[in-house]
Amino acid sequence: MIFLPPERLTDQGWATPSLWLYLLMALCGRTWWLLIVAAISREHGSELLALFYPSRTDFYLGLAIGLCPALLLWCQGFRQHNRIAAHLWYLGQPMLLLTMLADLTLQLRVHILSNGQFSWGPAILFMLTIWATWYLLQSRDTRTVFKLRGQQAARLR
């Protein structure tokens, strides 16, 4: 049986994501955030991108990894009106898990290419990504948000 407080359900009966899930999606889409900041600061945008992503390949891979959370955030808004968005939202947890694993793989690749040189920034990011993957696997709340469909939740009220 699925138990959620009534304030966590929308009027259509969909469960609203928690703050931690939104932070997890923001962590996955950090390359898109960096692209937005670089676009806003026009004269220093290319320098900013080169600071965080010296290799363009890593930047493009980061953008590809960030597509999944961006798509899920879009689907979250349209899931009650659109069947495709609702189905993609239903598949959100496995999609995010694959995204997190791809992100971990990319971070390990960057670490190997730097000849194993330790740096605090990538180390903290790697630990945050491991923690977010663990949270995604263990959180009942996250499973409920992705698996609970609108009509099922309305019957639970």
TrEMBL record:
User: What domain of life?
Assistant: Bacteria
> Where are the bilayer-spanning segments?
20-39, 59-76, 88-106, 118-137
User: Cross-referenced InterPro entries, in alphabetical order?
Assistant: DUF2919
Q: Which Pfam families match?
A: DUF2919
Q: Is Ubl conjugation found in the keyword set?
A: no
Sorted alphabetically, which keywords does the UniProt record give? Answer: Membrane, Transmembrane, Transmembrane helix
What protein is this chain from? DUF2919 domain-containing protein
Originating organism: Ferrimonas pelagia
